[in-house]
Amino acid sequence: MTTLAHPAAAPASRVTARVRPPALRQFGPNWYATVMGTAIVASAGAGLPLEIPGLRAASVVVWALSAVLLAVVLVARAGHWLHHRDRARADLLDPAVAPFYGCAAMALLAVGGATLLAGRDVLGERAAVAVDAVLFGTGTLLGLVVAVAIPYLMVVRHRVGLADASPVWLLPVVPPMVSAAVGPLLVPHLAPGQGREALLLGCYALFGMSLLATLMILPLVFGRLVARGPLPLALTPLLFLVLGPLGQSTTAAGQLADVAPGAIGAPYAGALGAFAVVYGVPVMGFALLWLALSAALVIRAVRRGMRFTMTWWAFTFPLGTCVTGAAGLGRHTGLMALEWLAVGLFALLVAAWSAAGWYTLRGVFSGALPAAPPTPRPVTVRTR
C-alpha cells in the first residue's frame, strides 16, 4: 500500500503575515497630515504678496511632492482597509483616532487648491481646473460625511469626558471650512449666472457650518487646559490645530470676497468685501495670541524632553492657513504690515515643514517611526 503524504497546511497566522503587508496595519489616517502640510506650503508660497526670486518654482516643486504624497497615502490607506479591516473599524471606534479621518478630506482639498494656485504652471490652466474640481467635489462630500459621522460616533459610541477634550476634536469639523477657502478658486471658471452664485453661497454655508461647530469646541479645549494643565509632551504640538479654523476662516472670507463681484449683486458683493476685513482682522489677532500661547507651551515641552512624533505635522497646515489669511487681509487692506506678517509666518511654516519632513523621512527609513496616531486608547463603546 502506498501512502501519499501531503504537506501540512501552513498556520493561518503565517499565511496572513505573508498576504497582509504588516506595515499597513499601523498606517493610520493621521498620515494625511503629511499631504496637508506639504500642499499648504505650495499654496502659501504661490499666494505671497511679495515677489521672492525662485519662490514660484519652489512652490511648483512642493505642489508636485504633495500630489505624489497624496497618491501614496491614498494607496496605503486603501491597502489598510483592504487587508486590515478589523483595525480600520477599531480606529473608527477609538476616540483618539477617529477624528483624524477629517484629515483625508482636507488632504484632497489642499492638493486641489495647490493644483490651481501652483500646479497650473505645469498642467496648464484647463487641466488644473479639472483636477481641482474633482478633488474639491470629492473632498467636500467626504468632509461633510466626516463632519456628521465622527461627532455622531463621539456622542453615541465613544466614551469621552470633558477631561478628554483635545484640539484633535476640531479635525472632523474643519474640512467644510477648507472647502469654503478652496471653492472660490473655481468660481471664476464657471459661466456667469446661477452656477457662480450657487457655489459662492454654498461656500458661505460651509463657512458657517464649520465656524459654529468650532465655536462650540474651542471653549472645551481651553477649559481642559486650564482645569487639567498642559497636554502630555508628545501631544503638545496639537495645540497648533486651533490655528487651522482661525486662519482658514480668514482665508475663506478673503477668497470669497475676491470673487463675489462676479458672482452676486453689487450690494452684497460690497458687504462681503467689508466682511472679509471686519471678520478677518479680529480673528487674525486671536490667532496670533493663540500662536504665542502654543509656542510657549511647545518651548516648555521641548525643555522637558519632547521628542519628534507625527504630531509635529500639526505645526504645518494650521500655520499655513494663517499665512494665506494674513496675505488675504493684506490684499484687501493694502497694509504692508499684514503682507510682512504673511512673509514672517511663511518663514516659520517652511521651517516647521522642513523639520517635520526631515524627521519623518528619517523615522520611516530607520523603522523607528510608529505609523499610528498618537496614544491610541483601548476602545470603549456605549450604546443608546
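[next item in queue]
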Amino acid sequence: MTISQAFEAAWLRAVQARESDAQGRRARAEQAAAASLWAAPPAVELNHLNDRLHSNAGRRETEVGLVWPLWLPGQRDARAAAADAESKLADAGTQAARLRVAGQVREAAWKLSAAEAEAVAVAAQARYLKGIADDVQRRVQAGDLARADALAARAELLEAGSVQSDAEQRLQAARAQWRTLIGFEAVPKVQVLPTASVSTAALPAEEHPELRLAAQSVERARKRLDAVNLSRRDPPELSVKYREESPGYREAAQRGIGIGLRIPFGTDSRNAPLQAAAIGELDVAEATEQRLRERHDADLALTRSALQSAAQQLDATRDRAGLLRERARLVDASFKAGETSLPDLLRAANAAAQADAALARQQAALGLAHAQLQQALGLLP
C-alpha cells in the first residue's frame, strides 16, 4: 500500500468527508432557493365567518386566497451570488479537509515506521545479548569467568527484554492508530527520499487549500453582507383572493375577486442586528485570512528549516552508529580473546544498540519532516 492509497481509504472513513458532503448539499439547496421565482414559499389563506351561534340569520362569508412573497429589486441576484459563494466555499472546504486528513495519514504512517524500525533494532540487541549471556554461561562453567559475570550478563538480557516489550507495546499502539485511521492493517510503504529531491516550491495562495478556504470565507461573508444590504425589509406579498358573501337566508350570494399587496416596513429593530452580524462575520473572516497567511509563511519557513536540520542530524547519527557498531565488534572480539572485561563489552554493546535505535528514529524523523513540508506546501500524497 502506498501513502496515496492509504489517504484515499482514510478519507472514505473520515468524519470530515461527511461534513464536506453536508456542506455541499446545503450550498446546492441555497442555490435552488435563490433560483426560485418567489422570495419565500407561497401560502394559502382560508377564512370563514357565519352567525350560526348568534342571530342565525344565515349570514356567512367565505374567503380563499393565494399569497406569493416577491423578491425586492436586486435581492434575488444578491442571494444567488451568496449561494454561489457558499458553493465555492464548500468545494474549498472539501479540499482543505482532504489536506488535513492527508496530514493525519502522513504523521501516522511515519510514526508506525519509526515504531517498527525501533522494534527491529531492540529485538536485534536482545538477540545479541542472548548470545553473550549463553557464551558467558559456558565460560563460567568452564571456569574461565566468574559467576558474577554470568549474573551481570543475565541482568542485561532481562533489561533488554523489558526494553523490547516496551517497544512492542508502542508498535502495537501505532498499528492500532493506523488501523483506526484507514480501516485495515495494511502497512504503508514509506521511504526516506533525498532532501534534494523534495520539492520546496509553495503553491500559489489561490491554490493552497487552506488559504483558498480562508479567501473564499471572506468572499462568502462579503456576498452575505450585500444580500443583507439589499434586503432592508421582509419580502412584499402579492395576494389574489376569491370571496363569497351571503347576507342571509333566501338572499342571493355576492361574489368577488380581489388583489392585494402587503409591503412590510424596514426598521432598525429588524435591520441593525442582521447588518451587525454580517459585518462581524466579514471582519472575522478577513482577520482569520490574514492570520492564516502569516502562519502559513511561518510554517513554511519552520518546516524547511526542520527538514535541513533533520537531514544533518541523520548524517551525524548514521556516522555515530557506524562508529559505535565497529567499536562494539572490536570489543566483542577482544572479549572472546580474553582481553576485555564483560562490563566493557556490555557498555559497548548498549552504546551501539542505542545508536542503532536512534538512527532508526532519526530516519523516520527525516521522513516525517519531508511529509510535514509537503503538508505545509499544500500538496496531497
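[queue empty]
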